[in-house]
Amino acid sequence: MGMGIDIRNRMAKRAAAEVKDGMVVNLGIGIPSLVANHIPASFDVMFHAENGILGMGKSPEKGLEDPMLCNAAGIPVTIKPGASYFDSAIAFGMIRSGNIDMTILGGLEVSEQGDLANWIVPGKRVPGIGGAMELAKKAKKVIVVMNHTSKNGEAKILKQCRFPLTATACVDMIITDMAVIQVTDDGLVLKELMAPHTVEDVIRLTGAPLIIADSIRVNEDC
Amino acid sequence: MINKIGSLDEALSKISDGCTLMFGGFGGVGNPPTIINGMIEKDIKNLTLIGNDAGFPHIGIGKIVSQGRVKKLIASHIGSNPVAGQLMVDGKLEVEFSPQGTLAERIRAGGVGLGGILTDIGIGSIIEDGKEKLLIGEKEYLIETALTADVAIVSAKKSDYYGNLVYETSARNTNPLVAMAGAFTIAEVDKIVPLGEIDPSEIVTPGIYVDMVIESKGVDWRWAWE
């Protein structure tokens, strides 16, 4: 397991701690997809996929994949008892009507107000929107999991997003390789650190003002 | 007697250069492989293509896109097909992005005889550019227009001679929506069974929406995760 994977799993593990028993959760592509591996087995969580599954189970064993049974990223999945299949319009109907308790998404940029940009880098990579607009706007709780800075070391948490927005004022919490930040009406609150990073490190690499919580938890093992 | 069973050649005769083609499937899963391969063999090009995504470069509808057979694509996502992204950046492929759920509803609207839908998804983003808005009560909505196509191609697990369709697990995805939105809808199915064999309450797409049924030769590509 490389260093990169470890950091990704640390973020996923911290995000998983936000998932409560009984929730309906939609996980985005990339690091968010690792969150399912860190949910306690005793929890009854219904994982939702935009292509049309409610009630995904764990990943199939190698060699036992069903090519027709995949999540929204095209990765084979299984289902658990109580699962259902439906078309993509129904899948998004569930999202828009407010039936998804939590979504965990990747991000390119998040603003001080909780605006999210995660679908286009103009003139460069154009992945497309996918289901991010619906999820960001309509899930009851939106958690963004992303690296604290870009590959060039630039801040991704900013006063205003530079890239085109996915949705405005939608993000509740940002989990990065350095910190856990809550988006509040008063601004961004730094609540937790990922060891060995310090408050000063986080302030230096964040492009928006941070309110420092009274007591800061340091995540050593996740 | 109604019998919609056709051959691949008959199906391909309905798809012409320059037509608007809608396809079912999501990330390659649920794309109709036999029709797609037939289109490539027949060198069909210049398409306006409507569907969820651009697949993967060598998987499903992605092959049609990667080979430059599409002039315009209306989709929610092309990230899994870097060739599509490159064609777009090079100005060789026009792409209209629609949020995934909005796209699904635009297709559904087209298939059920509606002119469009009202949604608040995309407000405050560049998706709203150039679109009309409507105030209902105190809430603002975007008007998103319906989508239809000359030909729709879908994939299903099972059909009878009337074209009643049953889908397989998550390969259902956009297929039931796309099946409704084609002026001529072709269903590629794994198995054709006699009329009456499918339990009516199991049918997802009533055969009224399906014009032709062909038997699938099955998926012949390697999946991205393999």
TrEMBL record, chain A:
Ranges in a coiled coil: none
Species for this entry: Halalkalibacter alkalisediminis
Protein name: 3-oxoacid CoA-transferase subunit B
UniProt keyword Iron present: no
Phylogenetic placement of the source organism: Bacteria, Bacillati, Bacillota, Bacilli, Bacillales
Keywords: Transferase
Family matches, as SMART domains: CoA_trans
Family stated for the protein in its record: Belongs to the 3-oxoacid CoA-transferase subunit B family.
Superkingdom per UniProt: Bacteria
Xref: Gene3D superfamilies: Glutaconate Coenzyme A-transferase
UniProtKB/TrEMBL annotation, chain B:
Listed name of the protein: CoA transferase subunit A
Keywords (A to Z) from UniProt: Transferase
PANTHER family attached to this UniProt entry: ACETATE COA-TRANSFERASE SUBUNIT ALPHA (PTHR13707:SF60), KETOACID-COENZYME A TRANSFERASE (PTHR13707)
InterPro entries with a match to the protein in the record: 3-oxoacid_CoA-transf_A, CoA_trans_fam_I, CoA_transf_BS, NagB/RpiA_transferase-like
Pfam family, any one: CoA_trans
UniProt superkingdom: Bacteria
Similarity section: Belongs to the 3-oxoacid CoA-transferase subunit A family.
GO molecular function: transferase activity
